Amino acid sequence: MDTGRRRPASDLIRQKYLDSARKLRSSLPAEAVTLYEASKGRLSVRLQSGELHHMDKSEVERLLNAVPPYFWKLVKIPVVLRYEKPGGKGPARYVVLGGPWQRRLVEIMLRGDFSERGVEALTVSDFQRIAGKYSSLLFVSISV
Questions:
Q1: 140: which strand partners?
Q2: Which is more confident, 23 or 130?
Q3: 4 in a structural domain
Q4: Would you say residue 2 lies in a domain?
Q5: Residue 77 lies in a domain
Q6: CA 37, 39, 43, 49 torsion-angle sign
Q7: Which residues contact 78 (CB under 8 A, 6 or more apart)?
Q8: Cα-flanking dihedrals φ and ψ of residue 47, to 5°?
Q9: E-assigned strands of 18-112?
Q10: How far is C-alpha 103 from the chain's CA centre?
Q11: Residue 1 domain-assigned (yes or no)
Q12: Residue 41 is part of which domain span?
């Protein structure tokens, strides 16, 4: 039965946001490959949507040259980051998803070297710097 009542605009906006977040999630990787596998020629991964994502061979080679070979079986690509913008509490950031090896990989991508902890989050300018060099190796999610 239609009561003729309309949904509040805030509900519609929230629904649109959630629909967009679901669509974004479907374009995230469903799998990842180790750098070792990539060095052997595996440059595609399946996305949540079922489509294939092809990583750029020259970007993978650049990363292989930057990362010590003993890391190759420990780190995976593509790298997934979660964009966060704290509500008025500070600047936006990109959180590295995964464990310490992924954080070390991102630190190598950013600085060319790594520390024990690696990089837990990137500033917007840090993200722009590595996205310029490794755009096909990065995926960004949002927090819902």
A1: 81
A2: 130
A3: no
A4: no
A5: yes
A6: positive
A7: 29, 32, 45, 53, 55, 136, 137, 138, 139
A8: -95, 165
A9: 33-34, 44-46, 52-54, 76-77, 79-84, 93-96
A10: 12
A11: no
A12: 9-142
Structure tokens at 142: 């949002």
Q: Which residue has the tokens 């039965």?
A: 1
The amino acid sitting at 65 is N
DSSP letter (8 states) at residue 90: S
Spatial CB neighbours of 31, under 8 Å, sequence gap ≥ 6: 45, 46
Q: What's the sign of the alpha-carbon dihedral 129, 31, 140, 52?
A: positive
For the chain, what is the domain count?
1
pLDDT (tens digit, 9 = 90+) per residue, 8-22? 777 778 777 777 666
Q: What is the pLDDT of residues 69-110, one digit of tens each?
A: 999 999 999 999 999 988 767 899 999 999 999 999 999 999
Residue pointed to by tokens 């519609």: 12
Tens digits of residue pLDDT in 32-68: 999 999 999 999 999 999 999 999 999 999 999 999 9
Which residue's structure tokens are 């913008």? 85
